[in-house]
Design goal:
Blueprint (H helix, E strand, L loop, with lengths): L3 H19 L4 E2 L4 E3 L2 E4 L3 E9 L1 E9 L1 H12 L8 H21 L5 E3 L3 E4 L4 E4 L5 E8 L3 E11 L3
Antiparallel strand pairs: 1-9, 2-9, 3-8, 4-5, 4-6, 4-7, 5-10, 9-10
Helix pairs in contact: 1-3, 2-3
Length: about 160
Amino acid sequence: MMQAKHVNFFIEATLETLKSMCGLEFKRCGEMSMADGEIVESDDLLAIVGLSGSVRGAVLMAAPLDVGQKIVSKFLMEDLEVINCDLMDGFGEIVNILAGAADAKIAELRIDLALPTVLVGTNTKFFAKAGNPFVMIPMFIPDLGPFKLGISMEIVSG
């Protein structure tokens, strides 16, 4: 089962990644929730990086399209106002970087990262497998808007 310290490592990694790569800071806004054995509604822009090795799971970031565009615009240092490959690649790369940063903090486990998968569209949903829940953490970036961080991590060895 995932430990609270692992969730905190992902939150710290997200803070560090968004600050260093995008010049953005965020605050938690609302309570964490668990998605376990259910279909979960997501925002318009969703990036997921699978986790394997000593763990089985994924890390995800989801944001309304306009917020995702603003985050990626900061990351790429250019305005993105349309849905294109740069938007999707950039959003996926941000999640990949934060997953790698969290992996570096979790020294006791070997975590391998899959390539990011990025989805865009209204009414996006994902399935949170029973027994390996996603911890969903709502965040807010001042002057940009909300996003969610999701972590699902089942320790299989280590």
